[in-house]
Design brief:
The strands form two sheets. The chain has a seven-stranded mixed beta sheet, with helices on both faces. Strands 1-2-4-3-5 form a five-stranded mixed beta sheet. 45% of the residues lie in helices and 16% in strands. It is globular, with a radius of gyration of 23 Å. Helix 3 crosses helix 16, helix 6 crosses helix 15 and helix 15 crosses helix 16. Among the domains are: 147 residues, Leucine Dehydrogenase, chain A, domain 1 (Rossmann fold, 3-Layer(aba) Sandwich), CATH 3.40.50; 163 residues, 3-Layer(aba) Sandwich (Rossmann fold). The protein is of the alpha/beta class. The structure holds glutamic acid.
Length: 474
């Protein structure tokens, strides 16, 4: 059931139906597609925690969709609505996004049925540590086997608790910091992980707008500058995507949809100002520089160039797909467009930049963090000053010839790269290459009807090659 109340296939079925279409464009041996499509194993755990003297039971899952590459990777979701079907769907999406953007991990996901807003920080720590311990016992948290990260309802705070729980139980594992990613930088995290998914969305849209053929396909023209954007969900992903697009690309954010209502201003809403307002007032209602609407989902149907659903699955469904006016839907969330809605939007000529690609920025930077943890050194530590020295010598050599290098270029050249520079450069490169491979498949394979199918087909192909080469399949 989707949020409109109409009967639609489940999230997992939605992902699997797209998989079936994508795998039908490939020449896979019988049985292999079936094996790749389904989750390899799912661990369900019920555990008790004493909260304020009362025993409460919690139920959670960790699903491993694929382990053709290890570790398997994916976030842990805290939500009262999380269930096994959802966790399996999300784990499958992790496999496809990692394969697509060449992040050498299998796909996994975890979920815990909990409303974090109902618990104190102290209780949340207790619950998280207990959940982590249960997962550690069964090797569902382990730097070489399964590495969680945040998802909805969790963040770097929970990851630090998980890392600390792992270190307490496996003090002899020299790579203990690599057991989880998106830790605070002071706890072995990496600069730039917090904003990585949102920035990846911005990089992905920038790449889309570098290809006139693709822009025309969605009945748009020009660059990102001045394009009207609606963003649904101002969480970590939505906030950073909208902020970067507004500040660096000149996109006009005309509407923001949140759980407590929506804001609309055709002249633009300043995202930073709004985030600050929301922090103080615990909601968007009353923000002085925009019109307020109680029923936020209505604004999904407002006229705009780009719509970024950045909250959760199933928000664009058969109940509202026909009324969507956006020309491009940029799936920052996992699974925001249902399988049936996808077909309706395709018919309308809306371009969907799919989740399997567009929100891969998070796991990409998680990969960088994992490498950093395994190498026990921050990126740039060895070469930064060396490169600065080399560049200074180059500047001096050129200027000795009597040529003056403009000051702003000298400033750029003088600086050796720091960790954040490497992270951003690696993320940008990954997002550029990802879209290029999708569009190449889309434009050259006549059976590939959308970017989603192209992205999935590329991912499935890579996973299939991997299984085949390792000898699982003859
Ligand atoms: N939960 C994020 C996602 O859906 C991040 C996963 C990770 O970094 O492992 O991609």
């Amino acid at each position: 059931m989707d949020s409109s109340g109409s009967k639609e296939v489940s999230f997992r079925q939605s992902v699997n139906l797209s998989f079936d279409i994508a795998s039908s464009t490939l020449d896979l041996p019988d049985g292999l597609a079936y094996y790749i499509k389904n989750n390899n194993h799912v661990f369900q755990i019920r555990f008790p925690v004493k909260i304020n003297g009362k025993l409460e039971s919690f139920i959670g899952w960790r699903a491993v969709h694929s382990d053709h590459r290890l570790p398997s990777k994916g976030g842990i979701r805290y939500s009262p609505l999380v269930n096994q079907d959802e966790v399996e769907a999300l784990a499958a999406l992790m496999s496809y996004k990692c394969a697509l953007v060449n992040v050498p991990f299998g796909g996994s996901k975890g979920g815990l049925v909990i409303d974090p807003s109902q618990y104190s920080e102290e209780s949340l720590e207790k619950i998280t540590r207990r959940f982590a311990f249960e997962l550690i016992k069964k090797d569902y948290i382990n730097p070489s086997i399964n590495v969680p990260a945040p998802d909805m309802g969790t963040g770097s705070r929970e990851m630090a608790w998980i890392a600390s729980t792992y270190a307490a139980h496996r003090p002899d594992d020299i790579d203990h910091l690599a057991c989880v990613t998106s830790k605070p930088p002071t706890q072995g995290g990496i600069q730039g992980r917090t904003e990585a998914t949102g920035l990846g969305v911005a990089f992905g849209l920038r790449e889309f707008f570098r290809h006139p053929e693709d822009i025309r396909l969605s009945n748009l023209e020009g660059t990102l500058e001045g394009k009207r954007l609606i963003v649904q969900g101002l969480g970590n992903v939505g906030y950073h995507a909208a902020k970067y697009l507004q500040e660096e690309d000149g996109v006009i954010v005309i509407a923001v949809l949140e759980y407590d209502g929506a804001l609309y201003n055709p002249k633009g809403i300043n995202i930073k100002e709004l985030a600050e307002y929301r922090r103080i007032h615990k909601g968007v209602k009353g923000f002085p520089h925009a019109e307020y609407f109680e029923n936020s989902s209505d604004l999904l149907e407002y006229d705009c160039d780009i719509l970024i659903p950045a909250a959760m699955e199933g928000v664009i469904h058969t109940g509202n797909a026909a009324k969507i006016k956006a020309r491009v839907i940029a799936e920052a969330a996992n699974g925001p467009v249902t399988f049936d809605a996808d077909a309706i939007l395709k018919e309308k000529g809306v371009s969907i930049i799919p989740d399997t690609y567009l929100n891969a920025g998070g796991v990409t930077v998680s990969y960088f963090e994992w490498i950093k943890n395994l190498s026990h050194i921050r990126f740039g530590r060895m070469q930064r000053r060396y490169e600065e020295k080399q560049n200074a010598a180059l500047i001096a050599a050129i200027e000795n010839e009597g040529k003056k290098i403009p000051d702003h270029l000298v400033k750029v050249l003088r600086q050796g790269p720091s960790e954040i520079d490497f992270v951003r450069s690696g993320l940008d490169d990954t997002m550029r290459e990802g879209f290029q491979s999708i569009r190449e498949r889309y434009w050259t394979n006549e059976n590939t009807a959308s970017y989603r199918i192209a992205a999935m087909a590329i991912a499935i192909e890579k996973i299939a090659v991997s299984y085949r080469e390792m000898g699982v399949y003859p």
